[in-house]
Every structure is written in C-alpha cells, then in structure tokens.
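subagent[fold] <- orchestrator: predict structure for attached chain, return tokens only, no commentary.
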Amino acid sequence: MLVDTKARIGVFSIALGAYLPQFPSLTPEFEAQYDVFKKTLPETVEIVDGGMVTTKEMAQAAGDKFRAADVDLVILQLLTYATSYNMLPAVRDLDVPVVLVNVQKKKSPDYENTDTATWLGELYACGAVGEMVADLERAGKRHAVITGVVEGGDPAVQAEIEEWCRAAQVRRRFRDTNLAQIGRPYPGMMDLYIDETNLYHRMFLYTKQFNWEKMWAIADHITDEALIRTKAQDILDTFEIEGGGTIEKVWEMAKYVAAFEEWVKDEQIAFIASHYDGFAKGKAGILDSMLIPAFSMLIKQGVACAVEGDIKVAMAMSILKTISGTGQLSEMYSIDFEKDICIIGHSGSGDADISAKKPTMKIVPVFHGKTGGGYLTQFYPHLGPVTYLGITQDKDGHFKFVVAEGVNEPGPIFNFGDTNMRTRFSCGAREFCNRWSEAGPTHHMAAAFGRHIETLLKVAKIFNVPVDIITR
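subagent[fold] -> orchestrator:
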C-alpha cells in the first residue's frame, strides 16, 4: 500500500497464581504454550506483549502497556483456570474488544494416566471462559470467544485469529491516516453529506480539506522523465487502452499519477472523496479528464478513491480493500427480472484487483451527470462469491454497516464503459432490493471478491457499530 500501517495487538495469557507453587511443572509448560501461541499471530501485526499474567499487579502492568501503545485489539490466551482479576485490570481502561482464545493443548485425555498437573496444564478448557465473559459484560466491554485445540493444528482457530487481525488493521488505518475531501459532494445527494467532526469522534478518521484550485497544479513540478516513464508503463500494464496504448499517449496522465502518489504519501492519505462541479476548462479540464485512471492507479495501491464526494463509501472501499485485497465502488444499476439478477456497478475509477481480465480505458466526450469528458475505465469483476458493504448513519449521527453476500454470474453486461456485475442473491433480486433499500444505505456501496461478512462483523465490533445483514 502507498501509505502503510500495521495493527497493534495487545496479547497476554493468564493462569491462576495459586497453582504455580503447588505444581512446579506448570510454569515452564505455560511459558512454552504462550510462546507457541504468539507465533500463530500473522507477521502483518505488531504484538504488544503483556506477558503471562498470574496476579492483579501483573494484569495492571499489562494494561499500562496496552494503553501506552493504543492497541487496536486485545487477544487473551486462557492457559488454564484463572479468576477475572488476572484479566480485568489489563483491559478496564481500553475501548477495544477482548478476544478470549480458549485453546486446549491436547485433543483428548489419557484418562487413566492424567494427574492434576497434567489436567490443569494440558487439558483444561471451558471452565473460565463464561466467568470472563460475565465480567467483561459487567464492565461494558466488547468480547468474543474462540475455542479449539493445539494438538494437530486447528485451522478454524487460526482463521478466526487472522480475521480479527485483519479487522484490527482497519482501525489502525483509520486512526493513523487521513481522508482527503476535494470539493464537496454531488449537489443534492444529501445521503452523502456528513459531519466531519462527528466522523472523527465516532470512527477516528480525520478529514483534510482540499480545493480544486490547489489540485490543478499538483503535477506542475513533476519533470523526472524516468519517473514519468515508469508510471506510464504501469498504466499500460494495468489498462487495455482503446485504439492502442503507448508511453507517449499516457505521458501526461503518468505525470498526474506520480504527483498524486507523492501527495498521498506527504499527506498520509488513505481515503479520497472528490467531486468537481466546475466548467472543466484549461488546467481544470486536463486534470478532470484524467482523474478516473489516476485514481484507479491509487486504488490499486490501497488508497480508496470515491466519486461524487462520498466519504462513507470511501470508508467502505478501504475496509474491504484492507480485509480482502479488493474494494470496488458500486451502486444498484438495474434488475434483470427474467434472470432474477441484480446489475450492480459504477462509472469512474475502480480497483484493478477485482478484475478477472485487463481493465479497459477509453475517451468519452461527456461524463454522465457531471461536466466535461475524458478517460473512462471499465473493470470486469471475477465470477463467484462477492460481498457488498454500505456505510450509513442514523438521525443521531451513529454509523451503521449494511452488508450482503451474493454470487457474480456470467452473462451479458452493459457495454457503455461502466463496470457492472450480474449478482444473484439467495433472497432473489426483488427482495434484495427491498431489504437493502429498507436498511437506509447511501446509494453507493463497496464490493469485494469473496465472502467477508464474518470479518466485517469483527470490524463492526471493533468500531462498536451495528450491522444489518441483508442476505448471505
């Protein structure tokens, strides 16, 4: 990604201190189990190690570490039975979920040859989990439980841990990067309007305001021909250009791509919501004509670029790109009632990673619904499972996720230059349209290849926002 971040995960384990002097074999056993457990976390996260906690004081020390690091999530390994004073001081002052990992070392007991130390060290699962959740509930903390086994490996446990880590990465990206708002939303699209201060308070995302007059000159200082040539080749490698593409044909566009990449890094931008409502003449016209492919090149590198000034869909695109690797802006286009298929897509910039074949680029004399014309890009999303995410707000400004899973199927698509998908939903096209609309999303949503509702539920728990699941 052009602007990279790394989730910070607070990790600790707990055991009852009273057991350790009674059974001396437990301390090295638990230390070894904790070391193995930490290695199951992906290298994409930064571990803030709270250690093996066996007293209230050790829990407080772990909590001090977690607060100082501003962790995005806490993962707790339950080694054996422990009372809640081993846990609560470590998480009391945090506003992130606590994931209780309840993994037993052995698959099953050797009943005749198991003594107390072996039971407590290698075969104890389940007993403390309910107690921990009860106390987290009373403390008003969000929580989740993962149960499994170490012996022989447990893919389900590993998948859950990795999903939580990807979800935590969304929080870190929102906290450490900025959103660029260029211009204002499309006039009259009041569903897109947003209070940027409320956005910062509720979703941690800070908005930097830019006007178009500044952006017109963004590429004026880009004169490094080797750099421009490299970016031009990147464009040719990414897009099939109508009429044939050459370095010279995309030279000016490559200058803007290089300029936007530099700007993104300098301003620490991971989200862009833009809309130009001017006359598109002179320098303004040059930039306006090239924004779609330039922003597509940014999306490919992890910067969510939303049209029509839609901040909320930029957030949705970034979430899906972070957890799945793809994030395509979309909206409801049409319904094929004979095939019971929803046609979903959008014009403008898109994510090359969602395309099953090389995206195309062509020049059009006019963009629909806005001034000017220029380069239009079309992407060809993969067939198979697809996830949609919309982000909306209620009357009090609280955010909500609206999610659905479907299947992209083969068949004819529109050929006027817009990206679109033929998506079948388990509830049927008519009912999907009703349910999705009744959830009150903005008219834009983001799409990602694959099924991601389970991870999105984890993202929602981290941000403490509700989720409407439309269909899966």
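orchestrator: received. Logging for downstream: The chain has a mean pLDDT of 94. The two ends are 30 Å apart (CA to CA).
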